[in-house]
Specification:
CATH superfamily: Response regulator
CATH topology: Rossmann fold
Order of helices and strands: EHEHHEHHEH
Bound molecules: 4-nitrophenyl phosphate
Number of strands: 4
Radius of gyration: 14 Å
Strand content: 5-15%
Strand order of the largest sheet: 2-1-3-4
Helix content: 40-55%
Distance between the termini: 18 Å
Amino acid sequence: MQKYRVMFICTGNICRSPLAHAVFKHLIHKHGYESHIDVDSSGTGAWHVGEQADSRMRQTAKRHGVQLNHRSQQLKYRALTDFNLLLTMDRHNYRDTLALCRSDDERDKVRMFRDYDPEGKGDVPDPWYGGQDGFEDVWNIVYRTSKALLEKYAD
Ligand code: 4NP
């Protein structure tokens, strides 16, 4: 069986999308879906390509028992053909991802990550310039939304 492939997208691929990637992977493992679902993450910008996730994001995830091992990569057109679902962290990432699409089929695969948030839609706020609280907020949004997304898939 072909795996269902999910790509998480943010701006730098060092805070929000690597967190969603790691949390989703953690939940896939916990529920035994490894042979069904594959995940990856990328950023619309190239500034941090090759870098590990931001240390504040890694620390926050670690406190909650999740390890971030990803290295930043830039989103490329190829992802629109290779992935089944592309989830963007904010409206700018959504616009930039749609701009890469070449067909309606591809555009249909692009959604805002928080469309699956049981507590409401919108952007996952960019924590890059803020304080530690911002990283904890991102954790809470990403964790509950990832759980809801996996439950929807498992339905
Ligand atoms: P992310 O956060 O998109 O959640 O990885 C950002 C990290 C870096 C930058 C912007 C957002 N930056 O402009 O370098």
